[in-house]
Amino acid sequence: MAEPTLVATAWTSAGDTSPMRSPATSPVPISDRIDAIAAAGYTGMGLIADDIAAVRDSIGLAALRDMIADAGLTHVEIELIERWWVPRGDAGNTYAVRDLLLDAAEVLQPTFIKIGSRTGPAFTDLDHLVAPLRELADQARQRGTRLAIETMPFSGLATVPMGAQLAHMTGHSGVGLLVDSWHVFRAGTPLTELDAALPGEMVFGVELDDAAAEVVGTLFEDTVNHRKLCGEGTFDLSGLIDLLRGKGFDGPWGVEILSESFRVLPVREALTSAAETALAVL
């Protein structure tokens, strides 16, 4: 087996910020983030929309692309488009983020754009999502990239099997799944159910992280403030990794750590500890 390769997903290198802040722009200069990611041995990185907008308005996206390449990073992913089915001009639409990330994809050529759904109860019907998702996938393809659905247990697309069902209904080769261990285990999805629901070709990306047995606060508060480094919690990460490898996925593996204690660490220290613990599990 080849040595596993890792991606520092957006929050892992962002420093002292979180999804609870608006804007959630990283306080760490982008050049420092890229240098730290490369120094810790990752082969790729992720960025959120707020950071992409800040870079676009300062050094420009072409300069960012060149910095990433010069550092030897070969995998880029960008996020997150939510409520992508809401028409432009309607209340709650997210076309500002959608347009930003599609434009950025033309320059950065990410492996995928991550998409979510919306906070709230799980959808009881997915039919209304199919046509808008096909349209978005066509637009992503025109920019040379794909869409990875990230399911979240506090959202409309609550489980990976739901995400797999939607991807199947959409019938578009540019639509797949981002499988995050926190969202798998906090949704209570047994690995046997995941195995049955998840075709290997749908797995566009994986994110590894861990957590305590009990949820602290709401699910959203728990995912933002209380994740643990891989192997320091209670998730069956080895079982999940074996399942995904059995379906043909073998990296690069994303590492996504969010917690109150992690985000205040010096970024180089945080990235190194996240990489070392992920590699130990892999």
TrEMBL record:
<protein>
    <submittedName>
        <fullName>Inosose isomerase</fullName>
        <ecNumber>5.3.99.-</ecNumber>
    </submittedName>
</protein>
<dbReference type="InterPro" id="IPR036237">
    <property type="entry name" value="Xyl_isomerase-like_sf"/>
</dbReference>
<keyword id="KW-0413">Isomerase</keyword>
<dbReference type="InterPro" id="IPR050312">
    <property type="entry name" value="IolE/XylAMocC-like"/>
</dbReference>
<dbReference type="GO" id="GO:0016853">
    <property type="term" value="F:isomerase activity"/>
</dbReference>
<feature type="domain" description="Xylose isomerase-like TIM barrel">
    <location>
        <begin position="34"/>
        <end position="268"/>
    </location>
</feature>
<dbReference type="Pfam" id="PF01261">
    <property type="entry name" value="AP_endonuc_2"/>
</dbReference>
<dbReference type="InterPro" id="IPR013022">
    <property type="entry name" value="Xyl_isomerase-like_TIM-brl"/>
</dbReference>
